[in-house]
Design a protein that fits this description.
134 residues, homodimer, 3 helices, two-stranded antiparallel ribbon
Chain lengths: 134, 134
């Protein structure tokens, strides 16, 4: 084990070699999104100073912003007490973290009692078609 | 499908019937902890207005605070764009969310470059022995 990998080995990677990651806006503390990283993604994140996740659907590294331009500058990386969840404090380029064109992915709010429902409460800042069309 | 369960069916539960949950302090927006819920845990959370998680290690419902007294009053429940992550906005009773006696579970900060390491940066507010000893 080299010094370069010791901090990576400190993490309890799950059975798929992944760890859940919460991205939080450094200035407002807003929770922007949730994703996953493998060892390579986290190592690349530290190296670049920008968030690199593991896309479980596409099964490849996902440098957040590579298509949208909405990169995440990473200011701080935290690990929880059980060493199995990572928290990033980031600056969100474009103020848009969500692929729907919203600031945060958590735009659906539960309203009502046990028979309530989810309501979209946050606005779309930019049409996704304008974000992803080259 | 009854109205009572429609909002629960809106969530994409994973292969274990669980969803990841982020607990965030309502006033400061601090991320306090990360845990999991099954359908029953989320239904109980809505019913009680307090966070009830699913303990994967103990394989049972875990009413946060049942042993420590550090309950979480739930003010808001959010769902992400993919409908597979839940965010709670809570008031943390006792200001301590972590079983180590700290405010937040995310008290280990990565310091340095690629050969850096994790450093404990947040204080223990209360000795866990004093929290859990009856």
């Amino acid at each position: 084990m080299t010094a370069k990998t010791r901090w990576l080995n400190h993490i309890k990677w799950d059975e798929h070699g992944l760890v859940p990651v919460i991205a939080q806006e450094a200035t407002t503390n807003d929770v922007l999104m949730f994703a996953w990283m493998n060892r390579e993604a986290l190592a690349r994140t530290v190296e670049l100073g920008q968030a690199v996740y593991w896309s479980r659907s596409r099964k490849k590294l996902w440098h957040k912003g590579e298509e949208s331009g909405h990169f995440q500058q990473v200011h701080e990386i935290r690990l929880d007490c059980d060493e199995d969840v990572v928290l990033l404090k980031v600056t969100q380029v474009g103020d848009i973290a969500c692929h729907t064109g919203r600031h945060s992915c958590f735009f659906q709010k539960f309203e009502g009692d046990e028979s309530g429902d989810w309501v979209e409460v946050d606005p779309v800042i930019k049409d996704p078609e304008a974000i992803y069309k080259k």
